[in-house]
Design a protein that fits this description.
With 315 residues, this protein is α/β, with parallel strands linked by helices. The protein has helices at residues 3-30, 93-102, 131-145, 158-168, 185-197, 205-213, 224-228, 248-257, 288-291, 293-308; strands at 49-53, 62-67, 74-79, 105-110, 151-156, 175-179, 235-239, 261-265. It is 38% helix and 14% strand.
C-alpha cells in the first residue's frame, strides 16, 4: 500500500465519521414516524368538536379537538410531545382531558406539524422552534373561542419547549404548565438516542451539539431553559424525578433561575415497577398523571385557580 493511500484511508474514515455524527444522526432526529389517531374524546364520553387552524409561518393545516366544559372557568391549550399526537396514549391524554373538563376547564388539543392529522413541514421535528408557531395559532384560536376566560398553555416533553418558545415570542397567556419539559436540547437528544439504540448517551453528545450549532435547533441562549428563565408569568413545572429523558437537574436549574416557577416533584416511581414495563427505556417520562392522577390534577387546578386571579395579559 502506498504512503498516500495509507494517509487517505484515515482521512476518509474520519470524514465519514464526522458526517455521521454531525449530519446523518441529527437529520435522522428530524424525521418523525407519524402515528395514526385511533380514538377520540367520544370514546370516553367526552363531547368535542374537530377544528382546524393555520400557523403564521407556513401554509399548513393543523388539526385539533375542542372539548368544552359546562360553566367553564378557564381554557387550557394542550401540546403533546415529539413523535406523538393529541391522543397521546403515552401520557393517557384522553383521561387527562376528561379530568380537566370535569374540573371546569375547556380544553383545546392540537396535532403539531408533522404529527397526527396535521400537515407535514420540512425539515421535520425542530424541538420547539417551528412548533411554537403551532402553539401560538392554537392559543389565538382558543382565545377567540372563549375570549372572556383566562387562557393557559400546557406542554409535555417537546411540547413544553414549544410552549416556552411561544411565550418567549410574545404569545399572550395567563400561565404555563410544563410537565417533564424538554429544557436542554443536547442532553435530551443524547438521552433519546440512548433510548432508541441502547448505546451510552455520551456517544451522542457531539450530535446533540450539532443539532443546535449546525442544524438550527434551539440551544444555548436560545434554548428552552434560557428562554423560560426570562419569562415573567406564572409557571407550574411538574417533574417526574426519575425521568431518564427530560431530567431533574434541568428542572431544578429553571426553578432556581426564575422565581415565577413553582416546581412540583411527583412522587418517585420505582424503575422496576411493572406498570412501566411497556415504556421500556422511556421509564417514568411524562408518567406523573398516569401514576398519580389526583395529585397531578390538584397541582394543575390549584395553579390555574391562583393564576386566574392575577391580572390578565394585555390584549
Amino acid at each position: 500500500m502506498s504512503r498516500s493511500l495509507r494517509l487517505a484511508l484515515p482521512v476518509a474514515l474520519l470524514s465519514a465519521l464526522a458526517w455521521l455524527v454531525l449530519v446523518t444522526i441529527p437529520r435522522q432526529a428530524m424525521s418523525v414516524e407519524r402515528l395514526a389517531l385511533t380514538t377520540s374524546p367520544a370514546d370516553i364520553g367526552l363531547a368535542y368538536e374537530n377544528f382546524s387552524l393555520r400557523p403564521a409561518d407556513a401554509d399548513l393545516h393543523l388539526a385539533g379537538w375542542w372539548m368544552p366544559a359546562a360553566q367553564a372557568r378557564g381554557t387550557l391549550v394542550f401540546i403533546h410531545g415529539g413523535g406523538s399526537h393529541r391522543h397521546s396514549e403515552f401520557f393517557r391524554a384522553l383521561r387527562f382531558y376528561r379530568a380537566m373538563v370535569d374540573a371546569g376547564l375547556n380544553v383545546a388539543a392540537i396535532d403539531l406539524r408533522n404529527h397526527g392529522e396535521s400537515d407535514a413541514h420540512p425539515p421535520g421535528l425542530q424541538f420547539g422552534r417551528s412548533e411554537s408557531f403551532d402553539v401560538r395559532a392554537a392559543l389565538d384560536w382558543a382565545r377567540a373561542r372563549a375570549p372572556d376566560l383566562p387562557l393557559f398553555a400546557m406542554g409535555i416533553s417537546m411540547g413544553g419547549a414549544s410552549v416556552i418558545h411561544a411565550a418567549g415570542d410574545g404569545a399572550r397567556v395567563q400561565g404555563l404548565i410544563l410537565l417533564d419539559p424538554l429544557l436542554d436540547t443536547a442532553d435530551v437528544f443524547a438521552r433519546g438516542a440512548w433510548i432508541q439504540t441502547g448505546l451510552p448517551p455520551a456517544l451522542f453528545l457531539p450530535s446533540g451539539w450539532a443539532v443546535s450549532a449546525l442544524h438550527g435547533f434551539p440551544g444555548g441562549a436560545d434554548g428552552a431553559l434560557a428562554r423560560a428563565a426570562k419569562l415573567d408569568l406564572p409557571i407550574l413545572l411538574i417533574q417526574d424525578p426519575q425521568d431518564p429523558v427530560t431530567r431533574l437537574p434541568f428542572a431544578r436549574e429553571l426553578a432556581r433561575r426564575n422565581p415565577r416557577v413553582r416546581l412540583w416533584l411527583a412522587p418517585r416511581i420505582d424503575a422496576d415497577d411493572p406498570r412501566l414495563a411497556w415504556k421500556e427505556r422511556w421509564g417514568s417520562h411524562v408518567a406523573a398523571f398516569e401514576f398519580f392522577p389526583q395529585q397531578t390534577v390538584a397541582q394543575i387546578t390549584g395553579f390555574i385557580a391562583a393564576a386566574s386571579r392575577a391580572p390578565h395579559p394585555a390584549n
